[in-house]
Amino acid sequence: MRPSPLNAVVLLNKMKIFRLPFYFVAIVFTLVNMPFHLSAQTDSLVTDSVEAPKRKLFAAPVVGYSPETRIFFGAGAIYYLPPSKKYPATSPSVVKAIFVYSQNKQIESNIEGDAYFKNNLYRSNYLISFYKFPAYFFGIGNYTIYDEKEKYDFDFFNISLNAQREIKENIYGGVRTFFETSKVYNTLEGGIFETEQIPGEKGGINTGLGLWFTYDTRDRIYFPLKGIFVDVTGVMHNGALGSDYNYFEQTLEISQFNKVMDDDVLAFNFYSELLPGNPPFNRMAKLGGDSYMRGHYEGRYRDKYYLTLQSEYRITFWKYFGINIFGGIGEVADELSSFSLNGLHYSIGAGGRLFIVPEDKLSLRMDVALGSRTDEEHLFGIKNEIGLYITFREAF
């Protein structure tokens, strides 16, 4: 559950405490400003007379304002790479980049992408980011109290490089690597960080190395009509690798896609994150975000263990537009035996899709979601949060 500027979440609760961060405005300008749309030929080595697919670059300047940043400016871009004619069965690759600087001297830069090679014999993803932005910390656990949140400043630089090779039809195996250096400062005097023992409260170095396995029968990557996707990782974070933290990061994600009528899809997703050991608070499993349990501020609830299940019905009205209706349940806990039905949070919502690359249904999405609040004095979701998400690609 890494923080990711291009996939961040905007939450607006009834008190309007959270405002739209600047990276969302960047995404909207990047994808909707079609006058900045550029195209070029792919694979210059192809020499026959059939026209090759087009690479597509969506780019735009970014200027705006938010209470946390004051005036900000920068640029964002998304680069779409279709398969070459030499390897036509290769899935399309995508690179995303953004850089913004604010009047409050805040910086956010990010390069992230997925790459596929030689008819999907090889596949990889990567993330390189620098992040300097205030955030809210609610504490650790499944029953944190909303009104006791604490604002703090958090900087980090991280690199994640991951690669796989097909080892059998639809089965891939490979490695995952991770490096991060972080700093926490400007915490509240007498607040949670000062009064409790929070792992990672001073920042530090976090490194990881592990295995990555995938089973993938999806008919396409960005908007599957049918198929199953299973993703399993096991990454060791250890002092022997230079890390200040020792824990074993284990994730399991299972998605199933079922075609309904012509282009509608009924999709299911299960995600679990298990982090035995002493992970820093910023790398604990976080409930919420733009992919899982939408409607919750990412990190509103966090702990060492996380389970969530969601479903989504995707309706295509035209080749350029669609809507999704979704719902989910999830919970965090300090150990597996602590999960209970009474601790479940819920998420429900709907959103629109603009397919910027219609042939692959690569989408700009906007979702509005309602998430339960289970403060200690208000159990069973009596209080709620509202989330607005403007980002890129489907949630799963």
Describe the structure in brief:
It contains two helices and 20 strands. It has helices at 22-32, 192-195, and strands at residues 10-11, 38-41, 54-66, 70-81, 93-102, 107-117, 122-137, 150-168, 171-185, 204-216, 227-237, 247-260, 264-274, 285-287, 301-303, 305-318, 321-333, 345-357, 362-373, 383-392.
Would you give an account of this structure?
With 396 residues, this protein is mostly beta strands. 4% of the residues lie in helices and 55% in strands. It has one domain (5-45, 53-392): Beta Barrel (Porin), CATH 2.40.160.50. The strands form 2 sheets. The protein has an 18-stranded antiparallel β-sheet, covered by helices on one side. The longest helix is centred in the N-terminal third of the chain and has 11 residues, at 22-32. The chain is globular. The model is unreliable at 1-50 and 376-381 (pLDDT under 50).
